[in-house]
Amino acid sequence: MTTVQSPPAPPTAIRPRAVARTGLYAVLAANAAVVTYFFTEAGFAANALIVLGRLAGLYGALFMAFQLLLVARLPWLDRRIGMDRLTSWHRWTGFGILWTLLAHAVFITFGYAQSSSLGPIDQIVDLAETTEGVLRAVVAFGVVLVVGAVSGRWARRRLAYETWHFIHLYTYAAVVLAFTHQVAVGTTFTASSAATAYWYGVWGVALGAVLVGRVVLPVWRNLRHQLRVSAVVPESDDVVSLYITGRDLDRLPARAGQFFLWRFLTADRWWQANPFSLSAAPDGERLRLTVKRAGAGSAALRHVKVGTRVFAEGPYGAFTALHRTRPESVLIAGGVGVTPIRALLEELEGHTVVIYRVSTDRDAVLHDELRELAAVKGAALHLVTGPVAPDLLAPRELARMVPDIAGRDVFLCGPPPMMTAVLRTLRDLGVPRRQVHFERFSLAG
Predict the structure, then answer these.
(1) Is-contact 42 352, C-beta < 8 A?
(2) Which stretches make up the FAD-binding FR-type domain (predicted)?
(3) Which comes out higher in pLDDT, residue 435 or 160?
(4) How many angstroms from the chain centroid is the CA of residue 443?
(5) Strand pairing category for 409-413 and 286-292
């Protein structure tokens, strides 16, 4: 499947990722300033601990709303920042929520205990029994603690993704409980009509973004495009390509380098979403994904029947030509990471060098397609085979294949150890960071 795309817009000095990142930081900073303003307008309690506790609780609520925006999978943000980076920010914002809510609970409890002469535990019990919304806040904080615990590296590595994801869904319950607590007892929330309208607006935008990005948009797109499997083509003993057709695919805003979360609606797999990149640039008629067997889910795709309905969420990812800064490029693929690289080769204009790193020639899936496409595009193709050690993509070897690499964009996709090594090599060769494009698919397959 080889389709040479029309040339995209030329590289620009305006970096989409920097614009989106700056915009997010500006939104968070502006809202933090507004929260601080409404807090001071509401007046201060006599007890300094209660003052600190209320302020920490407000910032915790703001972080919660920002957290929802990060995981809403809004197309504009995702194409410019990428799901991997948004997920990383989501993780660190989650720890921010944990610490601000912990500070809120500790300061409020000790502040009221200081005024009432009760012990901390007795004070929590008393507040939960006598003050509307406090019990809901205690439950919400307990949920946040559990989610925070399973987000740690030790727990995350030992939990199946489905289990981890299911536990995280309780975060939405915590958000609702925290919001009702804020409405019931938040002095800043009720201090003025402007403050009340502001907080309703913040929560409305955050929850609305999640509803649109995670539910409305995927459902609408799938109802519109009616995706089905049109062909299943084995590429090797453990690699298979699936072709997907549907209606109006020319209106699906997918680009080479992006991925979808695919659900094949069979009796035994409809509940499981598999994240796979497109292995060919979208041509408006069909989509293709190429999958290497890595478990029961991916192995079962070889046996999917033609005509099977597909529910696809996406497209996702910032690993696209949108971010190129130079007229010439280097595409570096490792193993099955060749799938988005092969798609990008179709779309990129200007002279391109493709480097495909595999252990043996037999592992070089799609190599024939790459060779054919490279000939059509006038690109240089290097197949690099051999064991992991010695490093065949070390600075000397990479500079030999691409002497002018520091003046090119570099698109990189492959196994995490290989990507880490190549990124180190690119730094040693003086390739500017803004010219290096990669996406870590730890959450995306």
Answers:
(1) no
(2) 222-322
(3) 435
(4) 7
(5) unpaired
